[in-house]
Amino acid sequence: MAVTDQSLTQTDCADCPIRHRAVCARCESDELSRLEAIKYYRTYEAGQTVIWSGDRMDFVASVVEGIATLSQTMEDGRTQMVGLLLPSDFVGRPGRETAAYDVTATTSLTMCCFRKKPFEEMMMRTPHIGQRLLEMTLDELDAAREWMLLLGRKTAREKIASLLAIIARRDASLKFAPMQGRIVFDLPLTREAMADYLGLTLETVSRQMSALKRDGVIVLEGKRHVTVPDFDRLLSETGDDNDGGMPA
Amino acid sequence: MAVTDQSLTQTDCADCPIRHRAVCARCESDELSRLEAIKYYRTYEAGQTVIWSGDRMDFVASVVEGIATLSQTMEDGRTQMVGLLLPSDFVGRPGRETAAYDVTATTSLTMCCFRKKPFEEMMMRTPHIGQRLLEMTLDELDAAREWMLLLGRKTAREKIASLLAIIARRDASLKFAPMQGRIVFDLPLTREAMADYLGLTLETVSRQMSALKRDGVIVLEGKRHVTVPDFDRLLSETGDDNDGGMPA
DNA sequence: CGCAGAATTGATACATCTCAAGCTGGGTGG
DNA sequence: CCACCCAGCTTGAGATGTATCAATTCTGCG
Q1: Under the GO molecular function aspect, what terms does this record hold (chains A, B) (predicted)?
Q2: N or C: which end of chain A has fewer CB within 10 A?
Q3: What is the interface size between A and B, counted as CB pairs within 8 Å?
Q4: Measuring CA to CA, how many Å separate B236 from each of A239, B80, B146, B156, B173?
Q5: Rounded CA gap, B217 and B229, in Å?
Q6: Do A241 and B138 count as a contact with CB atoms less than 8 A apart?
């Protein structure tokens, strides 16, 4: 919760918490030091807008700490989240002048930024960066397609269960906790942000959270602290294949 | 309509219709000839399944001619299309063993295939391929995010109008026709495929097509041949920003 | 304490789904 | 050459899930 001074100032890449997962993951130490020379940190408070869609964007960045969202808004105000950015995720597109989406910090946020020009030049000379970026982009594309199934075909209850499962998984992977039985985590999103993620209204999100609580699938303490007594039970509510076992 | 012998047999890369847009777009002639050595063509009939999700996939490929779809199916049969593959689009993921989605030919289809192993080896030695693949993947990710807005927030009528606009644009770009005024094209998708694309039922697709027809936004001859008398009118039905003009 | 933002809950409206019946056009076999 | 058939499509009537509008109720915080 507390933002340390560390996270507000330049950190040595060697000590970076996302060193092995971010766009720089495959860099050798000499490549890393060249990156180190052009990087700078920026921080944002919860709720702050990092950039508006259509604005000129002269940097790209990695999320170091905190959570941000990508979203699109229609003229009449309908908005759809199209990306959830967690530590190590990459923001911005090399070769693009303006932001294609609104980027918003949902928690306090630290990003490791590179001005676009120098970064693009480094990409040309450092295949490791482009390779890693390709890998990350393919992963994001897979996630986007999973998300499309959710948006197009799942019921409200399945959508909520799926989102909780996604967050639980991510949280467990940070804590190296096993993904079964009892799981405990904090929701990093407001009901409204959940609604924008899921293509629902905030009222429907609230109702379905209450329903899952009533049915014992989850236990809530306060609005944000979630306990999942039985993760498999939660999975069975997502509508996804959850037997997984039995190879043919 | 008629599939020529040409398209069923090996074609010289220099004569390839997707030469300048596919994953090989940036290759120099020596790189191209190495690709040429490992490529082979495969063709499928309309309706045929190219590969099932979960099946072993030992090749990657470019669509040369025709249209294919990527889709996901839930246990109970609900299906969502997650990709529409047009000529020059790339299928498969380097480094992945099994297919993540069902791939289906919706028209007769010709693909230019590479066995995965040799292709991956070439990617290591040929930065141009990885660079182009990154670019294409980023484009697909943008398209997926546009699609997410459609799935999550648009009405049935807006969804249909958006799909028609997408197909009209693609068609016009192939014919170098201007994107305004009267547009004519053929729908390459059945009502059911449209429904799977849009996260609707086929009945709703049919009703909204009828409504757009009744309102004069489109004219139908038969079920597949579409005339759009006024493209701007169609755009205004998509819910997207359509003034576009006025830079601030 | 009391306010403001966040969340819950209720009543009702409405868009889309579901189930069901019929239509259409092109191919086929008698 | 006609009758039939079938997949693809349209249309209708009613059910249902989610949105909308409107009160409350929480919760953290100045």
Answers
A1: DNA binding; DNA-binding transcription factor activity
A2: C
A3: 100
A4: 36, 26, 16, 14, 20
A5: 7
A6: no
Domains detected in chain B = 4-148 (2.60.120.10), 155-236 (1.10.10.10)
- Identify any residues that bridge with B73 across adjacent strands, giving them in sequence order: B79
Report the gap between the CA of B199 and the closest CA in chain A (Å). Answer: 4
- CB of A203 lies under 7 Å from some atom of strand C: yes
Residue A147 identity (one-letter amino acid): W
d(CA B4, CA B2): 6
β-pair type (A183-186, B90-91): unpaired
Question: Is strand D less than 7 A from the beta carbon of B159?
Answer: no
Q: Which pLDDT score, from 0 to 100, does residue B11 have?
A: 78
Average pLDDT over all residues of chain A: 92
Q: Which residue of B has its CA nearest to A73?
A: B149
Give tens-digit pLDDT for B104-135. Answer: 999 999 999 999 999 999 999 999 999 999 99
Long-range contacts of B213-218 (CB under 8 A, 24+ apart): B217/B161, B218/B164
Interface of B with A in 197-236 (CB under 8 A): 198-199
Q: What is the helix, strand, coil percentage profile of chain B, to 5?
A: 40, 20, 35
Scan for tokens 């998984």, then name that residue. Answer: A169
**Closest to B19 in 3D by CA, of B142, B135, B112, B157:** B112
Residue with more model confidence, A202 or A247: A202
User: Maximum Cα–Cα distance for chain A, whole Å?
Assistant: 57
Residue A70 contacts B, CB cutoff 8 Å: yes
- Written as six digits, the tokens of B22 are 């596919």
Q: What is the DSSP letter of A46?
A: T
Give, to the nearest 10 degrees, the angle between helix A191-198 and helix A202-214. 100
From first to last of its 248 residues, what are the pLDDT tens digits of chain B? 444 444 456 678 999 999 999 999 999 999 999 999 999 999 999 999 999 999 999 999 999 999 999 999 999 999 999 999 999 999 999 999 999 999 999 999 999 999 999 999 999 999 999 999 999 999 999 999 999 999 999 999 999 999 999 999 988 887 888 888 899 999 999 999 999 999 999 999 999 999 999 999 999 998 899 999 999 999 999 999 876 545 44
Nearest beta carbon to residue A72 from set B131, B137, B149: B149
| Subunit contact B152:A101, Cβ cutoff 8 A | no
To the nearest whole Å, the CA of B130 is away from the closest chain A CA by 7
Is strand C less than 7 A from the beta carbon of B204?
yes
Cα gap B42→A194, rounded to integer Å: 44
Structure tokens of A223? Answer: 């609005």
pLDDT digits (tens, 9 = 90+) for A143-200: 999 999 999 999 999 999 999 999 999 888 878 888 888 999 999 999 999 999 999 9
